[in-house]
Amino acid sequence: MDNLYKEFEKEALPHIDALYNFALKMTGSSDDADDLVQETYLKAFRFFDKFERGTNCKAWMFRILKNSFINDYRKNTKEPDKVDYDDVSNFYENIKSSDIKTDHLQEDVYAKLMDDDIAASLNNLPEDFRTVIILSDVEGFTYEEIADFIDCPIGTVRSRLHRARKMLYTKLFSYAKDKGFINEK
Questions:
Q1: Domain limits of the chain?
Q2: What does the alpha-carbon distance between residue 63 and residue 66 come to, in Å, rounded to a whole number?
Q3: In angstroms, rounded to a whole number, what is the distance separating the alpha carbons of residues 43 and 48?
Q4: What is the dihedral of CA 137, 141, 143, 146, to 10 degrees?
Q5: Which of 77, 116, 124, 145 is the most exposed, having the fewest neighbouring CB atoms within 10 Å of its CB?
Q6: CA-to-CA distance for 60 and 57, rounded, in angstroms?
């Protein structure tokens, strides 16, 4: 058991930052991303004996993360929202107006202005294209790793990546022009 744990630690833990970044882009929430990464590592450790040694552990981990996200999404869309009455009553009884801090709000809005426009354009891409462009251009995966991760041929990865970049180019052209990144002659 000790050897299995050490091998898992050596193979899987170096990918935690990349998994978190991808989970954050998929969920849009740091708390949900944390939960998704934790669930991914739990499943990966539980089934580490099924992992084929010598293959790409990073791609295996990303596939677990993606499948967990899809399964959670399907489960949540079929299940109605639940509200705990005690949480609601405690919220109104215990909240104080001084607990809400808005000093940093304006600073955060302006600091993230450019990123928000780009992130919104990226998030508006169809899921297949968004996944490929994030894995390639943000996370730095190779075509082979992406193909392994999304379980499709490399040619499909190249095609989706090309089309995703064209879609982003179209969406961000006026943004780049307004910001002075593109000079028209």
A1: 1-81, 103-180
A2: 5
A3: 8
A4: -100
A5: 77
A6: 5
CATH number among 2.40.340.10, 1.10.10.10, 3.40.50.2020, 3.40.1130.10, domain 103-180: 1.10.10.10
CATH fold of 1-81? Rna Polymerase Sigma Factor; Chain: A (1.10.1740)
CA dist 100 and 91 (Å) reads 13
Taking the complete model, does pTM exceed 0.70, yes or no?
no
Contacts of 116 (CB under 8 A, 6+ apart): none
pLDDT tens-digit profile of 83-101?
Answer: 565 655 555 455 544 444 4
Query: Which pLDDT band holds residue 182 (cuts at 50, 70, 90)?
Result: confident
Identify the burial level of 158 via C-beta atoms within 10 angstroms of its C-beta, where 0-12 means exposed, 13-18 middle and 19 or more buried: middle
pLDDT digits (tens, 9 = 90+) for 108-152: 443 444 467 777 888 888 888 988 988 888 778 889 888 887 888
What's at 166, amino acid-wise? K
CB 173 within 8 A of CB 121: no
Please, where are the H alpha helices in 47-153? 57-78, 85-94, 105-111, 113-123, 127-133, 143-150
